[in-house]
Structures are given as C-alpha cells and as structure tokens.
Amino acid sequence: MQKIIITIGLFLFIAGAFAQPGKGKHEDFEKYKAMKVSFMTEKLELTPEEAQQFWPIYNEFEKKLFEFHHGRRDMEKKVKENYNNYSEAEFRKISYDMVDLFRKEYDLMKEYNEKFLKVLPAKKVVMIGPVENDFRFMMIRDFRDKENLK
To answer: Within a 13 Å sphere around the CA of 92, how many CA atoms are in the beta-carbon half?
Structure first.
C-alpha cells in the first residue's frame, strides 16, 4: 500500500512539474525519464532491491540502443538526401551496413537480456518491452489530449 501511495505521489509531482511553463528540453526530458521509471517500476512490480539493480542496467542498455537508432536514422537521412547520387555498389554497401546495424542491435539486446535475467525473474524480463510500449502509448495519448484542449 505504501508503495502505491509513493508511486502515485511521485506521478502527481512529475505531472505537475510538466505543467510548469518555460522549462527547457533538458528539464522536460528529465521529467519524462522520471515518469518512465515510476510507470515501469509500478507495472513491472519491481521490489526496491530489484529496482536498485535493474535501473542502472536498463539505463545503460537504453543509452546504447539509442546510439544504434541514431546511427540508423543518420544513415537513412543520408540516403534520402543523396538518393540519386549513389551507384549500385554504394547502395549495396549501405544495405550491408544497415543489416550490420540491426545485427549489432540484436547482439546488444541478447547481451542485456542476460543481464536483466540476472537481476529479475524471467516473467518480469519478458514484460519490459510491452511495458515500455504501454508507457509510450500513454505519453502519446496524453500529448494528443493536451493538443485537443488547446
């Protein structure tokens, strides 16, 4: 019961902070991260001990995953901008490079799956992805609701 009250209090505090005008992108990102931690901790039903071990690993994983996504977006942008200037050989190389990025992302996910399984039961590890998606959908709904109120 105390955990639920703390989680609700944290969520209300963060939600109130989001309503503050004049905040920069960094502050918004930090609030988003705090909301995500609160949401995922509650939905995964992490014990305090699990959370203490899980979050450093998850944050490290998320940072590395972001780097792969950023690299792929850069590559896709470069292809769009220079689409008519590449030769068949260059497109072939880009194709292999993109597949290599996906392979590296897979390897990263495999590595961190093992790390997560060392600190969480498999049932909770399997739910990480679906809970992340639930959080994203909640944020999109909230954003759309706020836009509709304008």
So the answer is: 3
Domain coordinates in residue numbering, the chain: 1-46+121-150, 47-119
Residue among 142, 104, 146, 112 nearest 129 (CA): 112
2-18 and 25-43 helices cross at what angle (nearest 10)? 160
CA geometry: angle 100, 106, 108, nearest 5 deg: 105
Rounded distance between C-alpha atoms, residue 34 and residue 26, angstroms: 12
Length of the chain equals 150
**3-state class (DSSP) for residue 121:** coil
pLDDT tens, per residue, the chain with 150 residues: 444 434 434 443 444 444 444 456 778 889 999 999 999 999 999 999 999 999 999 999 999 999 989 999 999 999 999 899 999 999 999 999 999 999 999 999 999 999 999 999 999 999 999 999 999 999 999 888 877 776
Distance set, CA 120 to CA 33, 53, 113 (Å): 21, 9, 10
